[in-house]
Amino acid sequence: MPVAANRADRADASVLCRPKFFPGEFLKSGTSPPDGPFAAAISHSMVTTAFTLDGHRIVRNLGLVRGIIVRSRSVVGTIGAGLQTLIGGNITLLTNLCEQTREHAFDLMLQYAADRGANAVIGMRYDATEVMHGVTEVLAYGTAVYVEKEAR
Prior knowledge:
- By secondary structure, the chain is an alpha+beta fold.
- It has four helices and three strands; from the N terminus they run H-H-E-H-H-E-E.
- It has a single domain (3-149), classed as Hypothetical protein apc22750. Chain B (Translation Initiation Factor IF3).
- Helix content is 30%, strand content 30%.
- A three-stranded antiparallel sheet has the order 1-3-2.
């Protein structure tokens, strides 16, 4: 099922503006991995910050994929975080918000990669930018690839 249908209850602009990829355009010959809404989910073990995946050979480079989320803090969250700063230590309200936002961006990136026919992502990175006061963009990006296990 496409990401937009899975996350229709969320009002994130990144979901509403999601481009549609057509995996058949990228895989012209050879072994063709599953594509589109029937693509298998990409395991987290098949995502790396390196540019190679140990024990695997890159068969196809399917290009850059990204997941972008733009989030703001709620008034209640901001007040709660402000109170936590008075006590000091880890500000759990903001830590949880950041972790959830990164996870959501990561999941979107994996869905884009699967839509392209990838079974792995290499060179994965995160980036964050404050687009206005209290509003932050989190970007997860990498290179979608189709890999096969190396013969030993």
